[in-house]
Amino acid sequence: QVQLVESGGGLAQPGGSLRLSCVGSRIRLDRFVIGWFRQAPGREREAVSLIDSAGTTYSPGSLEGRFTISRDNAKNTVYLQMDRLKSEDSGVYSCAASTLWSVDPRDYDNWGQGTQVTVSS
Q1: Residues 2 and 23: beta-carbon distance below 8 Å
Q2: Dist CA 14 CA 5 (whole Å)
Q3: Which is nearest to 5 in space by CA: 117, 97, 95?
Q4: Of 2, 16, 82, 107, which shows the fewest CB atoms inside 10 Å?
Q5: For 49-90, how does the pLDDT look when each residue is reduced to its tens digit (9 = 90+)?
Q6: 3-state SS class at 41
Q7: What is the pLDDT of residues 107-121, one digit of tens each?
Q8: Distance between CA atoms of 42 and 66, rounded to whole angstroms?
Q9: Residue 38 near residue 92 (C-beta atoms within 8 A)
């Protein structure tokens, strides 16, 4: 079946970096909008980066350019490079696919299991 599998999470210090990976199985990631979302305890899931089939990207201004999304078509993988991490970046990060250019998680399917990111000293 179609699967998206995330990896790369872990513990990082404030100011540090992590790179998350989202690998597609039985789905061509370059044919969809792929979104990275995060959810912190007690908070709603929010979009942190999107990339469409043409390579157009989006990240909310609130992230101040600290997150970068990219895609390697040969590896069928979408990456999320997270720099200058802050404690408020902690949460479960998941990727998902959509046919819509949308920040609404309800427009996405094929969610991965998520990977935990903890930013703490």
Answers
A1: no
A2: 26
A3: 95
A4: 2
A5: 999 999 999 999 999 999 999 999 999 999 999 999 999 999
A6: coil
A7: 999 998 999 999 999
A8: 23
A9: yes
87 token code pair: 């404690």
Rounded to whole angstroms, what are the CA distances from 32 to 38, 68, 97, 98, 109? Answer: 19, 18, 6, 6, 11
Q: How far apart are alpha carbons 70 and 47 in whole angstroms?
A: 15
State the Cα–Cα distance between residues 97 and 29, nearest whole angstrom. Answer: 8
- The answer to whether 26 and 2 are in contact (CB under 8 A) is yes
Q: Which residues pair with 97 in a beta bridge?
A: 34, 109
Instruction: Give dist(CA 13, CA 72) in Å, integer.
Output: 27
Q: Is residue 98 helix, strand or coil?
A: strand
Unique residue bearing structure tokens 């609404």? 104
The rounded distance, in Å, linking the Cα atoms of 88 and 71 is: 25
Report CA 12 to chain centroid distance, whole Å.
17
